[in-house]
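Narrative summary of target 7.
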Amino acid sequence: MNKTPLDKTLPLAEVASKLESGMTIGIGGWGSRRKPMALVKEILRSDITDLTVVAFGGPDVGLLARAGKIRKLVYGFVSLDSIPLDPNFTRARERGEIPETNEYDEGMFVAGLRAGANRLSFQPIRAGLGSDVMAMNPDLKTVKSPYDDEEYVAVPGLRLDVSLIHLNRADAAGNGQYLGPDPYFDDLFAMAADTTIMSVEQIVSTDDLTAKAPPQTLLVPRIFVNHVVEAPGGAHFTSCDPDYGRDEELQKAYVAAAKSESDSDWTEFEERYL
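Modeled conformation, tokenized:
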């Protein structure tokens, strides 16, 4: 008996209704690349706050930090790629406006995501041993190998209430496809979450997903996706190759407004962008 896959499409305006204050939210992408900015803007326009954010951060983290939405941040870095540091993130850290942080080595961050994706409480890894990462994260523990004398860092699994990711295309059932040069870790973010909201540049038929692209571009299976949001330009001003590159001029305007000592400059940028 043939069964029609569930239609998981969700209007962008209804995204905030799926989120609550106090949630742990993972945000896919990498730095200023393929960030789910349309979904992040829905949080910024809402009264949702007190969030634990887990991300390889870019302007998503900067904007949420500037808006005072973050209670705890778990991150590998926060960067705008062509501009090394996000000034809103730097500002929030210097002012103590993010109450709690866990800054991990990039390999440790991915290990935590892999553990969360596999429903494991931790994953052993060599990265971090003998470094200041251990001193900066006193909650991290080490474990002894049961097979030899090796010792590893036991990176805690990162389980997420919700993941927000952005891909190039998907079908209405939630099969997500990337067409750029790098999948980043969006599949792990989806697997580690109880609920995944995936925005895409375009929703197409299931047959169209592989009509002009190989099957291995199907990064996220529908079993890990709860909602699909069609949001053309949904990663702007970050990149979403090959659909569009990073809008460097708007990113520079974001940085200039964030660095300005005049609140009116930031207000003007918010009104223009958000």
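The CA atoms of residues 11 and 131 lie 46 Å apart.
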